[in-house]
Amino acid sequence: MQVFGSLGTRYYEIRSRTGIQERTNLMNPTKTAALVLMAAGILALAYGGFSYTQDTHEANIGSMHMSIDETRNVNVPIWAGVGMLLVGGVIFATGWKPN
Q: Nearest 5°: CA angle at 66, between 60 and 70?
């Protein structure tokens, strides 16, 4: 068995008794999506949420410009973070592919 590849893509070259070579990609899109889902679950558990700024009101009076920015907080429940982590781990471990 020989391992080769570049830029994070690894392939295993498998030679059978008949001499046919087969290349298997280790990081298919399903595993990549599973890793992204697991990373999102870890971040959700570590930070517990995120905040963003939204422009709500704006007024222009002559040469004067006024605006009001509101900061909104979004809390991510613990069960959602644990769920993302578990689902991503199961998909990564089993190699599940959607039909």
A: 130
